[in-house]
């Protein structure tokens, strides 16, 4: 997506790293670039606002649930593999919580 206007930081870069911005997982200098971009680009600002609202809704609705330790470990392991550039195994991350319905484990 692009608004068609020239910006110092391209729309594609902003949208590719939107969740890093939302989670404040990027350097302050990059956050400043993104904030400047949102001030100039309404389509990206709208996308940011939508994703921010979804994130708040998920936190409000699901933030109280405890994550099983084995699931957390598997997810964090995959994140580490992706960040290091290594190949990620094709098998799915599954939940081994006996209280969950079978459909939630797939």
From TrEMBL:
Chain spans, region Disordered: 86-106
InterPro entries referenced in this protein's UniProt entry, alphabetically: Anit_sigma_mycothiol_RsrA, Znf_put
Domain spans labelled Putative zinc-finger: 11-44
Transmembrane parts of this sequence: none
UniProt protein name: Mycothiol system anti-sigma-R factor
Organism from which the protein derives: Streptomyces brevispora
Taxonomic path: Bacteria, Bacillati, Actinomycetota, Actinomycetes, Kitasatosporales
């Amino acid at each position: 997506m692009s608004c068609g206007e020239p910006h110092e930081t391209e729309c594609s870069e902003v949208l590719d790293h939107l969740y890093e911005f939302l989670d404040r997982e990027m350097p302050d200098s990059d956050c400043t670039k993104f904030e400047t971009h949102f001030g100039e680009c309404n389509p990206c600002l709208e996308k940011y606002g939508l994703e921010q609202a979804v994130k708040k809704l998920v936190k409000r609705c699901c933030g109280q649930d405890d994550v099983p330790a084995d699931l957390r470990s598997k997810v964090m392991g995959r994140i580490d593999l992706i960040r290091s550039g290594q190949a990620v195994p094709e098998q799915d991350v599954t939940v081994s919580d006996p209280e969950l319905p079978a459909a939630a484990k797939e």
